[in-house]
């Protein structure tokens, strides 16, 4: 395999540094929220991972459109798979952090609130995406089915995002609005905002880094598949 | 005067961050392992490809394709 490009090596290191700084800002720099205590600090990583995950799912839907309408090049399929895989990992972290926060804030690990339900459905949709792909051997057919599935699945991302703004829910709306029924909401101080926006930036960079690494893995996989065919022929 | 003390929820916070870091570490390890395995496969297949005798049918097709 070709060596990692210097830019990617730099991005790997920058991602680790940013993660360290972001953790410091979330755990030390940001003040303790008076009503919930330290558990509120999971909010920074909760939103950071959620933002990048939903962005990744939408990105995958865009690659699906490109593949289905403009170009049948299998590279778009690899880009799509990479985006979904990284997003799936990030969204898993989002859900787990949300559940951990909910235990002291709502007195339960889980409730079938519209936001939590749509988030769980989104995660399951994309787990099923990989199961679907596993069941199809022909690469072109797999890419076509995957693209259609990712396109339809992509609708779940904006639904999850807007669930707390459209439906009656106990999930707080911290950014850009408020929710009368919300339990566990809080107003961000200036220091909290610094930690929050830095976490958003950090997870965006980490996403790009992991995404680039995952695309390279997909390219390598493709190369191995091609060589396997050549050797067996 | 009637303010309630801030609850100690640091255990939840630690658990949350531990799971977040562990998940990211596992994913990076998974990427690294898959990459290493594929590189090994690539090396083996490369060797097989080089050591295999040239098949006339395949060579013919390639020549024809190349023009």
Description:
The complex is a heterodimer of chains A (233) and B (67). Chain A is mainly alpha-helical and 233 residues long. Chain A contains seven helices and no strands. Chain A has helices spanning 6-29, 42-70, 75-106, 114-134, 139-153, 156-166, 190-232. In chain A, helix 2 (42-70) packs across helix 7 (190-232) and helix 3 runs antiparallel to helix 7 (190-232). The model of chain A has no long low-confidence stretch (mean pLDDT 92). Chain B contains two helices and no strands. The chains are: A mainly alpha (233), B mainly alpha (67). Chains A and B meet through helix 2, helix 3 and helix 7 of A and helix 1 of B.
Write the layout of secondary structure elements.
The complex is a heterodimer of chains A (233) and B (67).
Chain A: H1 6-29, H2 42-70, H3 75-106, H4 114-134, H5 139-153, H6 156-166, H7 190-232
Chain B: H1 10-51, H2 56-66
Q: Which properties best describe this structure?
A:
heterodimer, A: 233 residues, mainly alpha, 75% helix, B: 67 residues
Task: Describe this structure in a few short sentences.
Chain A has about 230 residues and is an all-alpha fold.
Helix coverage percent of chain A: over 70%
N- and C-termini, Cα separation of chain A: 23 Å
Basic shape of chain A: globular
Largest sheet of chain A: none
How much helix, percentage-wise, in residues of chain B? over 70%
**What does the average pLDDT of chain A come to?**
92
The most extensive contact between chains is: A-B, 41 and 30 residues
Query: Segments of chain A where pLDDT lies below 50 for 5+ residues?
Result: none
H/I helix tally of chain A: 7
* Shape estimate of chain B: rod-shaped
In what range is the share of β-strand residues of chain B? under 5%
């Amino acid at each position: 395999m070709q060596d990692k490009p210097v830019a990617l090596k730099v991005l790997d290191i920058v991602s680790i540094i940013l993660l360290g700084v972001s953790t410091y800002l979330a755990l030390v720099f940001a003040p303790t929220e008076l009503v919930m205590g330290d558990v509120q600090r999971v909010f920074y990583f909760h939103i950071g991972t959620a933002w990048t995950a939903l962005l990744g799912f939408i990105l995958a839907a865009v690659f699906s459109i490109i593949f289905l309408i403009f170009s049948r090049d299998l590279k778009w399929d690899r880009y799509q798979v990479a985006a979904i895989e990284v997003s799936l990992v990030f969204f898993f972290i989002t859900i787990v952090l949300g559940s951990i926060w909910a235990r002291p804030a709502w007195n339960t690990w889980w409730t079938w609130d519209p936001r939590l339900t749509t988030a769980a459905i989104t995660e399951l949709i994309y787990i099923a995406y990989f199961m679907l792909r596993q069941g199809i051997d022909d690469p072109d057919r797999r890419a076509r089915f995957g693209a259609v599935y990712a396109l339809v699945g992509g609708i779940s991302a904006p639904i999850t995002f807007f669930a707390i703004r459209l439906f009656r829910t106990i999930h707080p709306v911290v950014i850009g609005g408020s929710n009368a029924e919300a339990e566990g909401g809080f107003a961000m101080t200036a220091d909290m905002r610094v930690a929050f926006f830095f976490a958003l930036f950090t997870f965006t960079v980490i996403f790009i880094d992991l995404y680039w690494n995952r695309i390279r893995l997909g390219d390598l996989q493709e190369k191995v598949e091609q060589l396997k065919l050549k050797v067996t022929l | 005067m009637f303010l309630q003390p801030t609850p100690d929820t640091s255990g939840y916070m630690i658990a949350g961050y531990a799971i977040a870091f562990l998940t990211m570490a596992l994913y990076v390890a998974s990427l690294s392992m898959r990459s290493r395995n594929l590189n090994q496969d690539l090396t083996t297949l490369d060797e097989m490809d080089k050591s295999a005798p040239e098949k006339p049918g395949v060579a013919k097709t390639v020549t024809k394709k190349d023009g």
